[in-house]
From TrEMBL:
Pfam family, one: Esterase
Family matches, as Gene3D superfamilies: alpha/beta hydrolase (3.40.50.1820), Tetratricopeptide repeat domain (1.25.40.10)
Protein name: Alpha/beta superfamily hydrolase
SUPFAM superfamilies xrefs: alpha/beta-Hydrolases (SSF53474)
Biased composition (Low complexity): 404-421
Gene source species: Flavobacterium aquicola
Annotated signal sequence range: 1-18
Keyword Zinc (UniProt): no
Lineage top rank: taxon: Bacteria
Keyword terms, alphabetized: Signal
InterPro entries for the chain: AB_hydrolase_fold, Esterase-like, Mycobacterial_A85_antigen, TPR-like_helical_dom_sf
Segments of this protein annotated with the region Disordered: 385-421
Coiled-coil ranges (or none): none
C-alpha cells in the first residue's frame, strides 16, 4: 500500500506541477537527431540569477515523468531542491540496446555505444551547461540496460557525474567486481544508489547482490552508498519505489533540520550550535552549488537547542547570522532580546524587542508580539516605593507606578553593538 501511495503521489505531482518540453538535438557523434525531454524548475524564469543541479535521465521515454514528479513534489514541500532534468529518448528501433551495447568478452562499450558515451560527455552535457543555468553537481539515472551503462562514467579518472542512480542494472561481465574497486579509489565525493526487486531475474539479482556486498565493504569516506531490495515488487514497479528514496539519499544534506537530526546531532552538542548551522549551509553551497537562504525553521531549531542547553551567549552569534541572512527583519533583534531576557537583563531585552518592532515581520514574529513582550517586561523593573519620614516613624508610603522608558532603539546592528555577555 505504501508503494502504491508513493506511485500515486508521483504521477499526481507530474500532472499538477511538471512542464516538460521536447527539443531535437542533432548529434555529430551518433550521426542522428535525438529527442530530448527538458523540465525546468518553476522558479527558473522568475529568478534569473539562480543555478540548479542537473539530472540526466537515460530511458527518458518512461523514466522522465517519475523523476520529474518526485522532484516537483519534494521541492513543493522544501525537502528536495529544484533540479533541471533532461531525459534522452531511446525508444525507437531498439535504440537503448544499440546505445548501451557492450562487448561480451571485455564488458566495455564498443562501436555505437562508444559514440553514445561521447555524445553524452562531449556534446550533450556541454550543450546543457551552455543553454541552461546549471551548477556543477550532476546526476545520471537509468534502468536495467541503461542502469549498467551509466556505470562506465565511473571508469573515468575524473568522473563526469557526482551521483549515480542504478535501478535493477543488467550488469555486463565483471562489472560487479570492477565497480567496487573504482569506488574505493574515488578521490571526490560520489553518491551511488543501487536497487533490485524480487521480481528481477534471479541471475540478475545474484550479481546485483554481489555488487552490493563489494560496495558495502569499501572504507572510503567519499562514497555515499545506499542499496535497497524491494520485496513484492516487479522489475518495473521497482522504479516507482526507488526514485524517491534515491533522491532523498543524494539530497539528504539539503533537507530542513528534522526531528531526528535535532535529537541526534544538534541538541546533544555541548557547544557550537550556530557553527553547526553555518556548516550545514556551507555544505549545501559547496557540494551542490545551491545558494539558499537559511530557513527560518532551521534558525528556530538552533534557537531551541541553545535554550534547552542554557547556552544563552550563543544567541548573540545566532543574531549576527540572522542579521546577515535577513537584514531587514526583526529576527536578529528577537534573538538578542531572548538572550538578555534569559540572562535577567530585562531593560536591554526591552530595548531589542522595541528595536525589532520597527523592522519587518518574519514567519511567526510580529510587531504585536514584540510590543507585547516589551510591555510585559517593563513591569518587572518599575521603580521601588519611596518611604517618607524617619526611621521608626509611622508614615504612609507613596508608590510610584510609572515605568521608565526603554533605552532608545539602537541604530547600529544590535549583535555588533552589544558584546557577548
Amino acid at each position: 500500500m505504501k508503494h502504491l501511495f508513493t506511485a500515486f503521489l508521483i504521477f499526481f505531482s507530474v500532472s499538477c506541477f511538471a512542464q516538460v518540453k521536447t527539443i531535437s538535438f542533432n548529434s555529430e557523434k551518433i550521426k542522428e537527431k535525438r529527442d530530448l525531454y527538458v523540465s525546468l524548475p518553476a522558479s527558473y524564469e522568475k529568478n534569473k540569477a539562480k543555478h540548479y543541479p542537473l539530472l540526466l535521465v537515460l530511458d527518458g521515454d518512461y523514466l522522465m515523468n517519475p523523476f520529474t514528479g518526485a522532484l516537483n513534489y519534494g521541492s513543493y514541500w522544501d525537502e528536495l531542491p529544484e533540479v533541471i532534468i533532461v531525459g534522452i529518448s531511446q525508444n525507437k528501433n531498439d535504440q537503448r540496446t544499440i546505445d548501451c551495447g557492450v562487448d561480451t568478452v571485455t564488458g566495455v562499450p564498443y562501436g555505437k555505444s562508444v559514440d553514445f558515451f561521447d555524445f553524452i560527455s562531449l556534446e550533450l552535457i556541454p550543450m546543457i551547461q551552455k543553454e541552461y543555468r546549471t551548477t556543477n553537481f550532476k546526476i545520471i539515472a537509468g534502468h536495467d540496460t541503461t542502469a549498467s551503462f551509466l556505470n562506465f562514467f565511473l571508469y573515468q579518472d575524473k568522473p563526469l557525474f557526482n551521483a549515480y542512480i542504478s535501478l535493477s542494472p543488467e550488469l555486463p561481465v565483471e562489472m560487479e567486481d570492477k565497480l567496487p574497486e573504482l569506488a574505493a579509489e574515488a578521490k571526490l565525493p560520489v553518491f551511488y544508489y543501487l536497487s533490485a526487486a524480487d521480481g528481477d531475474e534471479k541471475k540478475m539479482q545474484q550479481r546485483i547482490k554481489k555488487l552490493d556486498a563489494g560496495m558495502k565493504a569499501i572504507q572510503n569516506p567519499d562514497l555515499n552508498y545506499k542499496f535497497e531490495y524491494f520485496n513484492q515488487a516487479s522489475h518495473y514497479s521497482l522504479v516507482l519505489n526507488s526514485i524517491p528514496s534515491a533522491l532523498y539519499q543524494i539530497f539528504s544534506a539539503i533537507q530542513p533540520i528534522s526531528v531526528q537530526e535535532y535529537n541526534t546531532k544538534i541538541v546533544t552538542l555541548k557547544e557550537g550550535y550556530v557553527e553547526y548551522l553555518k556548516k550545514k549551509y556551507d555544505i549545501i553551497e559547496n557540494s551542490f552549488g545551491i545558494k539558499n537562504p537559511i530557513r527560518i525553521n532551521d534558525f528556530k531549531a538552533i534557537e531551541a537547542a541553545i535554550l534547552e542547553n542554557k547556552d544563552y551567549n550563543e544567541l548573540d552569534a545566532l543574531a549576527i547570522l540572522a542579521d546577515k541572512s535577513y537584514p531587514k527583519s526583526m529576527l536578529g533583534d528577537y534573538e538578542l532580546a531572548i538572550m538578555f531576557e534569559k540572562k535577567g537583563d530585562n531593560p536591554r531585552a526591552v530595548r531589542y524587542y522595541m528595536s525589532g518592532f520597527n523592522k519587518e515581520e518574519i514567519a511567526d514574529l510580529t510587531k504585536d508580539m514584540m510590543f507585547a513582550k516589551a510591555e510585559e517586561l517593563k513591569k518587572t523593573f518599575a521603580k521601588k516605593p519611596k518611604i517618607k519620614g524617619k526611621v521608626g516613624q509611622d508614615t504612609s508610603t507613596d508608590v510610584q507606578t510609572d515605568v521608565p522608558a526603554a533605552d532608545p532603539a539602537p541604530t547600529d546592528t544590535p549583535a555588533a553593538e552589544e558584546p557577548k555577555q
